């Protein structure tokens, strides 16, 4: 569905029913340069954004400067909806990882579009449920798994949607960025990446990481978290 503004962006095509058209009708397009802060934690704004092109990162920062990376969002992803729903300050900082084009719309327009769309409410509920599942994974991993196992889970998460015997992640997060994702330090990630290389499971060349034995990585995760894991259940639901 498109309106007088023109053709619906491809990145919004996966939204359900008539919701995409309703959101696009009230959206403005904005651009962000790589490294630019799009939203800052604690800010009172309530705009909702959809990534049309590029990639952004969701992170938290302590007063001492410690970074906790929650996730990356690519084209088609939506962010900012929590503040639009509860009208509270932003809960995370969003930074452009590359040059981005975003669709931005007011909170009131977002809420109205969801309410008016036949599938909007169920879509939003499913989206929030997915976020709860993802946070449950993280809490479990941080409290129950060692650094090595947390890294295996994160690498498998980066391979989402990729099947077969191997997978290439490019550009791969730096060791410091991986450390910020799993609650450790860069040196620990470097050590554990060496373990994977010795096992013939991963090969890294600069910012390209190839998981040469994806089934073996999945088995390492399965051994760490149990036969039927929270991680696997959530991964299947996202697909």
Automatic annotation (TrEMBL):
- Which Pfam families would you find in this protein's record? cNMP_binding, HTH_Crp_2
An MF annotation (GO) of this entry:
DNA binding
| Cellular component GO terms held in the UniProt record | cytosol
Q: Does the keyword Transcription regulation apply?
A: yes
Query: Known Gene3D superfamilies for this protein?
Result: Jelly Rolls (2.60.120.10), Winged helix-like DNA-binding domain superfamily/Winged helix DNA-binding domain (1.10.10.10)
**What keywords appear on the UniProt entry?**
DNA-binding, Kinase, Transcription, Transcription regulation, Transferase
User: Where is each Cyclic nucleotide-binding domain found?
Assistant: 33-119
Q: Would you tell me the protein name for this molecule?
A: cAMP-binding domain of CRP or a regulatory subunit of cAMP-dependent protein kinases
Provenance organism: Edaphosphingomonas laterariae
